Amino acid sequence: MTAREDMLAGRDYLADDPELVEMARRGRRLNDAFNEAATYAEGAQVLAELLGSVGADVHLRRPLHVDYGAHLHVGARTFANFGLVALDCAEIRVGEDVQIGPNVQLLTATHPLDAERRRAKWESALPVTVGDNVWLGGGVIVCPGVTIGADSVVGAGSVVTKDLPPGVLALGNPARIVRNL
Question: Which domains does the chain have, with CATH numbers?
Answer without folding.
Answer: 3-180 (2.160.10.10)
